[in-house]
Specification:
The complex is a heterodimer of chains A (150) and B (546). By secondary structure, chain A is mainly alpha-helical. Chain A has seven helices and no strands. Helix content of chain A is 51%, strand content 0%. Classes of the chains: A mainly alpha (150), B alpha/beta (546).
C-alpha cells in the first residue's frame, strides 16, 4: 500500500474521533487501525486509496474533530471514504467482533435441517382460518371495468 | 468489419441464437437443446466462480457495496455496460454474465396472483395479460422443480396453496417476531418461498443461512442459472459464447432476422447466423438492442412498428421500514432471501386512494457496516463517536426490514432509449433511463409505509427507520417490449414472437404487460418456459430466412 507513515499516523488520529474508546470498546487506534486494519481495507477496496490520500494530505490537526466536520462539508466523498476505512478496519478486527457479539456471515448446514415452522403453528392456523382473499380470474375477461384511472 | 468466419471455427448458421444467458435465456437454451435444436447463446459477461463471491470473506461488508454492487455504474466491471440515469428516480440493477442477474438476486420466488393477469378487467387500468394465472400455473410448477424452490404449501393467498418442492427455510427469530406483529393485527403472512435449496438438490448444496445471497452464494445453495441450467444446457449441446457483446440483430430483405453481430473481448466483430433469434437481455438490454438494430426496413428499431420498444418501463419502486427490538434476533442470519412475506394489502381497495398493491417481505439487516448505511447524511455526532457504539449496541442483530415491493403501472413516459453521448467500452450507445413514479405509486408507497410502521409497532419495535424510496432498487426490469394480441399496441405476441419479425422472439421481463407487485423471476421463468415450449411444438410452421 502506498500510504506512508505520516499519512497513517494522521489516519489513526482521525479514526479515533470517529471510533473512540468507551468502557467496553477499544478506540480504533487500539486495534492497529492504521496498520493491519488499513491494509485490510485497502486490499478489499483499493478505490478508497485516492480519496484517503486526499483527505490525509494536510497531516494531523490540533483539533481533529473540527477537521472532520470541515471535511464532511467540503469533501463529503473524502469523508465517507475515511469513515468507511475507519469503521471497516475496526469491525473486521477479531477482538472487536468478539466484543460486539458478531460472528460474521457464517455457513452452517445444520441450521436448515429442521424447519422452525409448519402449517400447524398456531399463528399460521389463524392465517388459514381467516381464509383466502385473492380475487379469482374473472369468468368473462371481455367485460372491462371502466375506472377513473387510465 | 465483420470477420468472415467465427474465430472458433464454428461460424455456421444454427437453428437458434439466444442473446443473454440470464434467467429466461437459460430456460430457453436448455429446452431447445434437449429438443434437438442447434443453439448458440451469446453472453457479454463470463462465468463467475462461486469461490469468488465475497460472502465467505472477512471483508464481506467492504466488498459488497463496490465490487459486487448490483448497480453496474457503481461496479464498473469490463463486462458491464453503463446506464444513464440522471432522469430516473431509480437505478436499474443487473449482472452481466452467465446466469445474468440470478447471480446477485435475492431468490424470492413469488408467483403472481390471478388478478395480476386481469388488471384491466378488474381494476380498469393498464392491460390484461394474454393468458391467465391458471394457464401459467403448470409452467410455474415445472420451474419450481428446476429452480429448487423451498417453501411451505397451504398459503391461502393462492388458489392452489402454492406448494413447493423443497421444505421451507427457517423463518428465524426475526421472521417469527415479524409474524407475531401481523398475527396481532390479524393480517396475512406466510413463510417466504425462496429459490434456495433447503436440502441437497441437483447441483445445489443445502443453504447454511450465511445471509449473503445478494452478492452471490459462495455455498452453491442459491438457484442461479449458471448452476441450475447451464451445466445441463452445455451438456445438451448449447454453445455458450462468453464475452460476446451483441450490437445488432441483423435482418434480410424480407424482414426476417438472420442472426446477431457481436464483439468479442479482443474487439473483433463476428456474426452468428441463425434461423431464429431470441433476445433475453433484460428489460433494459433488450430494448436497447432492438433500438440499435436499425435498417432501411426498420428505421425506428427492430420490431418497433408500435413505437413501444423501450416504452412502459416498470422497475418496482421499493420502500422499507426497519424496526429495532429489545431482544436479540440474530438478524445477520439468512436467507436474504425472504424470511416471511405478506400479501395482506396486495389486492386493490379503492378506498385507499390508489389501485393495485404491494407485496411485503422480511429480510435480515446484516452486519455492523450494513447497519451504518442507514445513517448516510446524518450529523457527525449522530453517526460517530460515542453514538457509533451506542447505535451498534442497540441495533446489531436486533432488527429486521419490512420491504415493500409496489406495483408500478405501465406508462409510456417511463422508458429506455439510446443515450446520445454515453457509450459502453465497445463504443456502443448506452441506454438512457427515464423513469418517474406516478401519483398512484406515491399514494401506494405512503399507504404501505404507514401500515409497515404499524406492523413493527404491533411486533414491539423500540425504534423504526423509514426509507421512502430506495434509489438502488431497480432489480425488476419489465414492460419495455410489451406482450399482447394487437400489433398496434404491443411488441410481441403471447408466445414472445415479435409482431413485425416472424422469427424474432423476446422471452425476458420486457414482455410483461404489467408488473404486478410480486418479484418477477418466477413469472419470467414460467413465461419463458411457456414460450419456448410453444416454439418447439410449432417448429415446423416457423418461417425462417432462406
Amino acid at each position: 500500500m502506498t500510504l506512508d507513515e505520516t499519512q497513517r499516523a494522521t489516519f489513526s488520529v482521525l479514526a479515533d474521533v470517529l471510533v473512540p474508546a468507551t468502557d467496553q470498546m477499544p478506540a480504533a487506534s487500539e486495534v492497529d487501525i492504521s496498520g493491519s486494519g488499513l491494509d485490510r481495507v485497502l486490499r478489499a477496496r483499493p478505490d478508497l486509496e485516492a480519496p484517503l490520500v486526499r483527505v490525509l494530505a494536510d497531516g494531523a490537526s490540533s483539533d481533529p474533530t473540527a477537521r472532520i466536520r470541515n471535511m464532511q462539508q467540503e469533501d463529503p466523498a473524502g469523508f465517507e471514504a475515511l469513515a468507511l476505512a475507519a469503521t471497516g478496519g475496526y469491525y473486521t478486527e477479531g477482538r472487536v467482533r468478539d466484543l460486539i457479539g458478531y460472528p460474521g456471515q457464517t455457513y452452517d448446514a445444520s441450521r436448515v435441517e429442521i424447519p422452525d415452522i409448519d402449517s400447524s403453528d398456531p399463528m399460521l392456523q389463524r392465517v388459514i382460518a381467516r381464509g383466502s382473499f385473492y380475487r379469482p380470474t374473472p369468468s368473462n375477461s371481455g367485460e372491462e371495468k371502466r375506472a377513473n384511472v387510465s | 468489419m465483420v470477420d468472415a468466419d467465427d474465430r472458433s471455427g464454428r461460424g455456421e448458421s444454427v437453428d437458434v441464437v439466444i442473446v443473454g444467458a440470464g434467467a429466461s435465456g437459460s430456460v430457453a437454451a436448455l429446452r431447445l437443446a434437449r429438443a434437438g435444436f442447434s443453439v448458440v447463446c451469446l453472453e457479454q459477461g463470463g462465468w463467475t466462480d462461486p469461490s469468488a463471491f465475497p460472502g465467505s470473506k472477512l471483508e464481506f461488508e467492504l466488498l459488497a457495496p463496490k465490487t459486487w454492487h448490483p448497480n453496474p455504474n457503481v461496479r464498473g466491471r469490463p463486462s458491464d455496460y453503463p446506464c444513464e440515469t440522471s432522469d430516473s428516480d431509480v437505478n436499474p440493477l443487473m449482472w452481466s454474465g452467465v446466469g445474468g442477474s440470478t447471480i446477485l438476486w435475492a431468490a424470492h420466488w413469488v408467483r403472481m396472483l390471478p388478478s395480476d393477469f386481469r388488471v384491466r378487467t378488474l381494476d380498469g387500468v393498464a392491460d390484461d395479460w394474454p393468458f391467465s394465472y391458471e394457464e401459467l400455473l403448470p409452467y410455474y410448477q415445472e420451474c419450481e422443480k428446476e429452480w429448487a424452490v423451498s417453501g411451505l404449501g397451504g398459503d391461502p393467498a393462492y388458489p392452489d396453496g402454492a406448494h413447493m418442492p423443497l421444505p421451507p427455510l427457517p423463518i428465524g427469530k426475526a421472521g417469527r417476531r415479524a409474524g407475531e406483529g401481523l398475527d396481532e393485527l390479524g393480517w396475512h403472512w406466510w413463510p417466504g418461498s425462496n429459490a434456495i435449496a433447503s436440502r441437497q438438490y441437483g447441483n445445489l448444496h443445502p443453504c447454511g443461512l450465511r445471509g449473503t445471497c445478494l452478492t452471490g452464494c459462495p455455498d452453491r445453495a442459491k438457484a442461479s442459472t449458471d448452476l441450475t441450467h447451464w451445466p445441463a444446457a452445455v451438456e445438451a449441446g448449447v454453445r455458450l459464447v462468453t464475452g460476446a457483446r451483441v450490437r445488432e440483430i441483423t435482418v434480410n430483405g424480407k424482414g426476417l432476422a438472420t442472426g446477431a453481430t457481436y464483439i468479442d473481448r479482443d474487439g473483433h466483430e463476428h456474426h452468428q447466423a441463425a434461423e431464429v433469434v431470441i433476445v433475453c437481455a433484460n428489460g433494459v438490454g433488450t430494448p436497447r438492442l432492438l433500438q440499435l438494430s436499425t435498417s432501411s426496413r426498420f428505421p425506428d428499431g427492430l420490431g418497433n412498428s408500435s413505437g413501444l420498444v423501450g416504452k412502459r418501463l416498470m422497475m418496482h419502486p421499493y420502500a422499507a421500514v426497519v424496526g429495532f427490538y429489545d431482544e436479540p434476533l440474530e438478524s445477520w442470519l439468512g436467507p436474504a432471501g425472504q424470511l416471511i412475506q405478506s400479501l395482506h394489502f396486495y389486492e386493490t381497495d379503492e378506498s385507499r386512494g390508489f389501485v393495485r398493491g404491494a407485496k411485503w417481505q422480511v429480510m435480515p439487516t446484516g452486519g455492523p457496516l450494513g447497519l451504518r448505511a442507514g445513517y448516510g447524511g446524518a450529523p457527525l455526532e449522530d453517526r460517530f463517536g460515542q453514538a457509533l457504539h451506542h447505535n451498534l449496541q442497540e441495533q446489531l442483530g436486533r432488527g429486521f426490514e419490512w420491504g415493500l415491493i409496489a406495483e408500478d403501472l405501465p406508462e409510456q413516459s417511463n422508458y429506455v432509449t439510446l443515450d446520445t453521448e454515453l457509450k459502453d467500452s465497445d463504443r456502443i450507445p448506452a441506454p438512457k433511463i427515464v423513469y418517474r413514479n406516478s401519483d398512484n405509486t406515491r399514494a401506494m408507497l405512503g399507504f404501505h409505509l404507514a401500515r409497515a410502521q404499524e406492523a413493527h409497532e404491533a411486533a414491539g419495535a423500540r425504534k423504526t427507520v423509514e426509507t421512502k424510496l430506495m434509489r438502488d432498487c431497480g432489480w425488476h426490469l419489465m414492460g419495455t417490449c410489451m406482450m399482447g394480441n394487437d400489433p398496434a399496441t404491443s411488441v410481441v405476441d403471447q408466445w414472445g414472437g415479435a409482431h413485425d419479425v416472424p422469427n424474432l422472439y423476446v422471452y425476458d421481463g420486457s414482455v410483461f404487460p404489467t408488473s404486478a407487485g410480486a418479484n418477477p423471476t418466477a413469472t419470467l421463468a414460467a413465461v419463458a418456459l411457456r414460450c419456448v415450449k410453444h416454439l418447439i411444438e410449432t417448429r415446423h410452421n416457423q418461417e425462417v430466412p432462406a
